[in-house]
Each structure stands twice: as structure tokens, then as C-alpha cells.
What we know:
This protein is an alpha+beta fold. The protein has helices at 2-33, 129-143, and strands spanning 41-42, 46-47, 53-61, 64-72, 84-88, 100-110, 119-125. The protein has a domain at 41-124.
Amino acid sequence: MRAILLLILMTLMTVNTVAGGKNKKEKAKASKSGSECSDWRYGNCVPSNGDCGAGFRDGSCDQQTKKMKCKVPCNWKKEFGADCKYRFGSWGECDPTSGSKTRTGTLKKALYNAECQQTISVSKPCAGKTKTKSKGNKRKGKEN
């Protein structure tokens, strides 16, 4: 008699555990999706302090809104935004008239449906001779 009761008890515990596990998985899946809406639109990431670092971006779909955590890298290029990722070519030759060199980038990825330019061009000052000399001096100092 005890064996039968023990068997029934074990069966009930197993059924309860399996059913409970499925409910947890279904609940987790439902909470991840959040809603049935598939056309979410996101704004730019706005840092909480200053012009870079941790912040938030707003998302909206139909009449739903949500706030997401985000991060603006502190080395981002303000001209084209932190949500636009580009693949850049090599730096060009130094232009002696402007004292700078340029390179172009093509759009690799637009995060959160950001509006990005397909190609961009960035420039930076040419390296001067003083920079090369200072590296040479450092090497000489290390050898001694």
C-alpha cells in the first residue's frame, strides 16, 4: 500500500514540475517580446551626464512607449552619430595646403533604425615632424 502511495506522490510531483517549467518558459518568452508590435522606432541615445557615457533612448510603437538603457562611447564622432557604424578605408596623403588628411567610410550598420548617411568623409591633422622626433628621443633615453 505504501509503495502505491509513494508512486502516486512521485508521479504528481513530476507532473507538477514539468507543467510549472513550461509556464515559466512561456512567461519569460512573453516578457522578452513585450508586445505584439513589430515596428518599434527608437530615438537617439541621450547620455545622462555630459555628452557621452550611460544614458537612455526612447522607443515607440503604435501607442506604446518604452525607455531603454544605452551608452554613447566617449570617442564617438558627433558629425555622424553614435548609432551609425562605418567601415573606413586608409588615410589619404597629407594635403599640404590644409595640413590634414582624409578618409571615407561606407555605412556598415545603422543601429535602432537610425537615419545614417551612406558614405562619410572625416579628416584629421597631418602628423608633424616633432612627433617623430619625440619618439626617437624616447627610444634613445631608454637605450641609455
